[in-house]
Amino acid sequence: MLLTLKKSLLVASGLFCLSWNAFAQANPLQDFVNSLHTFEANFAQQTLEDSPFSSANPPKTGHFQLLRPGKLVWEYSAKDAQRIVVDGQNLWVLDKDLEQVTVRPIAEVQADIPLSWLLYDEKIQDKFTIIFAGERQGMVWYNLTPKAATYFQSIEVGLKAGVMQQVLMYEGPENITKINFSQVQINQPIAPQNFEFTLPQDLDVIGQPSER
């Protein structure tokens, strides 16, 4: 009886290891990233209250372009008047309302970019702990918790048919940002010059860019 129980536990343990290894080797989120060269979509960004299922605040809208590795443009609509550019060397933030540009070398801020896991040719698990977060709203979800300290606690990514459709960023239990993507295009040509930042005249510049 005892010998049979031990054998059963060993078999169960072996099956668990096989299942975990299969999950680790067939990670749809990493597969999505590995297959990606460009990503372009409209977005609606909303600050939530209490839970990711509330919708208390109106969203900010804009357009997102990504060119892997290392380049993105995140531009809010005219009423919000902000443009964020990662050009491969620096992170630029143009704020028209404040009439200023902020710039930081990527080497200094990479960990604080919420989409850094998508932007660079690195295994996600090198920088994040990945947890399968189940299925809801017709999407398969993965939770990414940074292994190094950063300003956000975790990110949840929702995939539909293997493509990113929604992101939830948790800065705290009552500080959640929800981003919905629409009109998604992947691996379509995007002009490289879209990711070049031209410094507008007569604006204050805060920070010092890294030289190429």
Note the topology.
Elements: H1 2-25, H2 28-34, E1 38-48, E2 60-67, E3 71-76, E4 82-87, E5 90-95, E6 100-105, H3 106-109, H4 116-119, H5 124-127, E7 128-136, E8 139-146, E9 154-160, E10 163-172, E11 175-186, E12 204-206
Parallel strand pairs: 6-12
Antiparallel strand pairs: 1-2, 1-11, 2-3, 3-4, 4-5, 5-6, 7-8, 8-9, 9-10, 10-11
Radius of gyration over C-alpha positions, nearest whole angstrom:
20 Å
Which CATH first-tier class would you pick? Mainly Beta
Beta strand %: 35-45%
In total, the number of domains comes to 1
What structural category characterises the helix and strand content?
Answer: alpha+beta
Q: For this structure, what is the CATH homologous superfamily?
A: Lipoprotein localisation LolA/LolB/LppX
Q: What percent of the residues sit in helical stretches (DSSP H or I)? A: 10-25%
The CATH architecture comes to Clam
Distance between the termini: 70 Å
Number of extended strands: 12
CATH topology call = outer membrane lipoprotein receptor (LolB), chain A
Largest sheet: 12 strands, mixed
- State the helix count: 5
- Shape, please? globular
Give the averaged pLDDT, no decimals: 85
- The oligomeric state of the chains shown is single chain
Widest sheet, order of strands: 7-8-9-10-11-1-2-3-4-5-6-12
Q: Which spans of ≥5 residues are poorly predicted at pLDDT below 50?
A: 1-25
Question: How do the SSEs run, as a string of H and E?
Answer: HHEEEEEEHHHEEEEEE
Main location: periplasm
Protein name: Outer-membrane lipoprotein carrier protein
Pfam family, one: LolA
Signal peptide: 1-24
